[in-house]
Amino acid sequence: MKKLNPDKLNVEFRPGVTMTEPIIGRKYTLTHSDITADLFLTIGLQFAYEKINVMRDEVLAEWRMNNGFPYLYVYVYVDGEFGPAVTAVRDAIFRRELPLALEAIRYGDRTFFAAHSELDNAPIWIHFDSTNPLYNKFENWGTPGDYQ
Question: Where is the Staygreen protein domain (predicted)?
Fold first, then answer.
């Protein structure tokens, strides 16, 4: 697993969110540049769909509630536009890069986590979205505190 280089992380807060609020409805869009290796984290009330490119290699995450308890729901689109032959490769890449993506979210929104330290113990649920049942999965990936 690569470690996050904070100098390569660019964070943008959209209208409606502050560095500490809200919790529920807070959405993260994480994209990257293959050329510069920069990461771009947008935090807002909606996903930054305009930042998503045709490769569909973004990571989307948002805070949700289940039975009164918050959790971080993360979504990745495994299939992509290149058909089923590429699904296995994309799945492997997402699984390799997700720890870095989760670290980028945790670090990029560190003031939020400092204000709501209990969220470091909230579960992270990742939806690997695929039309292929072999890759269409919903998995627990620990807590944000695991990615500090």
Answer: 3-147
φ, ψ of residue 16 in degrees (nearest 5): 100, -15
Total domain count, the chain = 1
Domain assignment of residue 1, yes or no: no
Report pTM. 0.94
Is the pLDDT at 74 greater than 70, yes or no?
A: yes
Residue 32: give its domain's CATH number. Answer: 3.40.20
Distance CA 43, CA 29 (A): 7
Residue 57 lies in a domain: yes
